[in-house]
């Protein structure tokens, strides 16, 4: 009789965590598995036929007193050794289909809330976990939840393995880059050692030539002394015979001296024609021997000098200026270094800063040997007179938007109204026609004759737009120019230094 009273009136199964007693509102209870069938078939109590209005089993309250009595009866039956009615959650099957006991409700944890990531019992579901459409919780039985958790963990581990493989590939790539760099450095080091040995051999040769010249100076002094002695003998002659003898000896010595002097002139002419010339190997060797070097340039404006420095295996030829170098610094000819610059894709640099502090170096590579490219290189080196050194960025447009651009290069007025061309043939279109992409360096339109030397650098994409004045591209330092475009006012941004890069 006890078990009949504590069971469902429809299926006659005892109430437990799987079959929770649901109050229908009339005082009668039906298990949670059968109540959905009743809802689907008319929503009337199977005992008194009174209607109820719940549309889902979850909407009906649990009869907790009845559920506790059922649990107590099951416990007493186990203690007395009486067999308990098997249900899907009892006996040996229960340990496989639940996650233990709920500490809050002392019920079996038969489901997992995927949304909240916790194991739940029936009471937990009714009190804290609401299913759609009223709530966001997603419930799965233990077995299905275990499978999904396994799948999630496997996917997480697989994702981490892929990430680690990518990390390994990146590290291997870096290792390859370092190895290639090491080979380049070894080659450069060998070249520098060869250059140093060549320089030492040249020093020895020069020392030998110096001793030879010193000997020639002493020899010429002997010639002069001999002529003076003959002159004295002529002056001391008192008779015709003595005078004739002294004059004959003087003529013979004079002829011999003239022959020797002619040979010395030929030797000196050969010496001037065999002076050392500056080449790439000599330059590497000189860089190994001296940290600071300069070049000298003679033009109509007078004599000017430019500093040489090394950056990333490139020789940087800085802009010419009037200040002479230190007396101890090696000085080469400007033309010998300038001739090492390639014609097909030469490159230049701009040292950009504001508030008197350098913010970084911008590297630019020319798009071929064009008039615009030659003009930019000439204004970076200052070899023609005007120079970008000391000019400011006079305009930044569309900052933060599409087609952002920063402009500079007005060496005349520093405000964008000047900057005339310094070479002939600056054209528009044709080889200068390119998509407006970040890093593209453009110039003024050929119709603006008074400002053809100004330049602009595109800083952000500008889709479906083209420019017909492009002549170079930024290969490094674009971030420096983006920061410069956001400086207020932008005219504070200055080209602190500039020049041409010479590959070694």
TrEMBL record:
UniProt-recorded name of the protein: Peptidyl-prolyl cis-trans isomerase B1
Organism the protein comes from: Chionoecetes opilio
SUPFAM superfamilies: B-box zinc-binding domain, Cyclophilin-like, RING/U-box
Single GO term (MF): zinc ion binding
Signal peptide start and end residues: none
Gene (UniProt): cyp8_0
Domain RING-type: residue ranges: 8-49
InterPro entries (UniProt xref): Cyclophilin-like_dom_sf, TRIM/RBCC, Znf_RING, Znf_RING/FYVE/PHD, Znf_RING_CS
Superkingdom, natural source: Eukaryota
Alphabetized UniProt keyword annotations: Isomerase, Metal-binding, Zinc, Zinc-finger
PROSITE patterns, per database record: ZF_RING_1 (PS00518), ZF_RING_2 (PS50089)
Upper classification of the organism: Eukaryota, Metazoa, Ecdysozoa, Arthropoda, Crustacea
Keyword Zinc-finger: yes
Keyword Metal-binding: yes
């Amino acid at each position: 009789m006890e078990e009949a009273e504590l069971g469902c009136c429809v299926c006659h199964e005892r109430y437990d965590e799987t079959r929770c007693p649901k109050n229908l509102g009339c005082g009668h209870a039906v298990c949670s598995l059968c109540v959905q069938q009743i809802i689907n078939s008319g929503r009337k109590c199977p005992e008194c036929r009174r209607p109820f209005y719940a549309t889902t089993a979850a909407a009906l309250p649990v009869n907790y007193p009845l559920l506790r009595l059922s649990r107590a009866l099951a416990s007493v039956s186990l203690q007395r050794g009486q067999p308990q009615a098997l249900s899907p959650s009892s006996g040996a099957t229960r340990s496989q289909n639940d996650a233990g006991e709920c500490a809050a409700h002392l019920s079996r944890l038969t489901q997992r809330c995927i949304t909240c990531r916790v194991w739940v019992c029936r009471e937990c579901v009714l009190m804290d976990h609401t299913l759609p459409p009223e709530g966001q919780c997603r419930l799965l039985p233990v077995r299905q939840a275990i499978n999904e958790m396994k799948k999630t963990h496997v996917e997480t581990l697989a994702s981490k393995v892929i990430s680690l493989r990518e990390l390994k590939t990146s590290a291997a790539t870096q290792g390859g880059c370092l190895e290639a760099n090491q080979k380049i450095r070894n080659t450069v080091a060998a070249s520098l050692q060869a250059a140093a040995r060549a320089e030492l051999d040249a020093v020895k040769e020069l020392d030998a030539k110096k001793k030879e010249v010193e000997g020639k100076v002493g020899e010429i002094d002997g010639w002069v002394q001999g002529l003076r002695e003959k002159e004295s003998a002529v002056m001391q002659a008192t008779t015709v015979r003595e005078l004739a003898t002294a004059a004959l000896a003087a003529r013979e010595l004079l002829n011999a001296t003239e022959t020797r002097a002619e040979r010395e002139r030929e030797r000196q002419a050969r010496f001037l024609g065999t002076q050392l010339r500056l080449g790439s190997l000599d330059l590497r060797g000189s860089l190994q021997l001296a940290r600071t070097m300069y070049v000298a340039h003679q033009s109509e404006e007078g004599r000017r000098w430019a500093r040489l420095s090394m950056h990333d295996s490139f020789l940087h030829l800085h802009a010419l200026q009037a200040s002479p170098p230190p007396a101890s610094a090696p000085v080469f000819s400007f033309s010998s270094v300038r001739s090492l610059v390639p014609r097909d894709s030469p490159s230049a640099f701009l040292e950009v800063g504001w508030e008197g502090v350098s913010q970084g170096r911008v590297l630019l590579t020319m798009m071929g040997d064009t008039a615009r490219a030659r003009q930019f290189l000439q204004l970076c080196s200052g070899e023609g007179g005007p120079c970008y050194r000391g000019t400011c960025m006079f305009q930044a447009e569309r900052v933060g938007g599409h087609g952002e651009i920063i402009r500079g290069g007005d060496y005349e007025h520093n405000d964008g109204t000047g900057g005339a061309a310094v070479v002939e043939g600056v054209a528009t279109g044709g080889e200068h026609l390119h998509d407006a992409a970040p890093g593209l360096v453009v110039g003024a339109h050929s119709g603006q004759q008074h400002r053809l030397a100004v330049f602009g650098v595109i800083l952000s994409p500008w889709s479906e737009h083209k420019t017909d004045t492009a002549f170079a591209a930024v290969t490094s330092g674009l971030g420096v120019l983006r920061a410069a475009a956001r400086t207020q006012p932008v005219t504070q941004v200055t080209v602190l230094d500039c020049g041409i890069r010479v590959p070694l």
